[in-house]
Amino acid sequence: MTVVYPRKLQSSLGSLSARDVMKQVVRDRDIHLITLNRYRYSEQRSCKDLTTLIEQLNGKPAELVKDLSRHVSDEARHAMWLTDLLVDLGSSVGTPPGMSYIEEFERLLDQESPSPESLDDFVISSLAAINVTEKRGCEYFSGHIHALKHAPQTEENVKIRETLERILPEEAAHVRWGNRWLAQMADKSPEHRAKVEHAKRKHAAIEQAAFESGMDITAGAELRRVGHLLDIANTLPAWQRPQYLMERLPQSLLSPDLQRTRLDAIQRVWNRDPQAFVERFVPMFLSGLTRDVNGKKPQPNKASAANAAAN
């Protein structure tokens, strides 16, 4: 069965791994605390979403409801640990600023409801959605811990690392039980296996789009969002693609959340360091114009490369 892993972040600086990103995050205390608050918000929100899923399943299959209930317990504990940590550090535990990864993920999903005739389809779709987001979480918790081990070993950094090290094993366990459930569903029949493979591809595309939308505020981000939307549509049956695109295209092109995030970032950087705003933020923002809709920087052709070498 196909194994799906989260892809790297495509940015104006090139392709960045979780370790690359977190290495920069831990150097700036304000950004570091906002990142921790995003973790807290995601864990807290997961409790709500998983509880809704349990209610939709209405007790069937019972073993899945049992696993999901334990999952809720884990996520609530993680939210509690992160809330305690942030309060101890004197940081905000309000709704974090900027684009919401969870809300963007849900916006890009097809809203499905279970029925006796399509319960397996609903279970497969739900499991694939949970599994791909948990994998992203594990990747970034691991990258964060690695960055903290190589950062100055201040009391604050040690406390943050120890909290994340308590959370990561349980997040990894969530990925394992998701993999196990998807494998069990695939083993029911060749038709089920095909549905699992399709759900994994579809939700991987949705997760990548949601992830990058929260990280990309540079010029041209709207067009890259449309590119991701097309990637998702291409995983759907041909007759579903027009409706999917028409329902989500306006929000991708004209996102108020994106504009608010941009303004907030501009204000933060300007207030902290006007010189850095001019020398670093503005060039970074404009560099988005040199990226294609898939978030990749254009590669120079042989002639331009030769001219650059000659100069």
UniProtKB/TrEMBL annotation:
Residues 290-311 are annotated as: Disordered. Residues 301-311 have a biased composition (Low complexity). Gene3D superfamilies: 1.20.1260.10. SUPFAM superfamilies: Ferritin-like. InterPro entries: DUF455, Ferritin-like, Ferritin-like_SF. It comes from the Bacteria. This is Ferritin-like domain-containing protein. It comes from Thermoleptolyngbya oregonensis NK1-22.
